[in-house]
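Format is chain and fold; as here:
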Amino acid sequence: MDEGLINNINRNFKGQQPNETVHSFCRKHWVVLVPYFMGLILMVGIIVISLFSPYLNYLKDFITAPIYNLLISIGIIGITYFHHYFFLRIFDYYLQTFIITNYRVVQLNQTLYFHDSRDSIDLQEIQDLEFNQDGIFKTIFNYGELTITISSGDAPKTFHHLPHPEYHFRKINKTKREYITVRRLQKGLPEEEVTV
């Protein structure tokens, strides 16, 4: 195996079928975390400025002690809430996974406390596949959307903020060709060139 490649064969996930192997998996692009980190930097900046600001001492002269203590308590509650919110978003980022197996495409959406869902599309149901990288940021940072059209007539499923969408586009096409070839051989049909 090449040094630059990652071996995904030994990866497992909840709900995996017998004889199902993971060909590729990823999380959303790190760019989805940027607003949370910007908020954290802003919050730390406000805290540092508040602690070392001379105006904080002057504020004591204009308001009563109970109101001052109330404002400090509200500030501490706000900071505590934001930090918990920030770290929950980090955990949620690692719990949301996009997986390509030899049978299907699976999206695992979990949060730490309230949400746990799985959405899967069988490879044989994929009618059309499209990846999209519109905009300079998506092109520079190499992320975009992957849209799967299902043959059953349901609405297309779009996976947003997917890193390296062209790689996953090619991986799904290749895996689908292999899947169809194996199915044809299992049915005793001759192996033919499969196009997706």
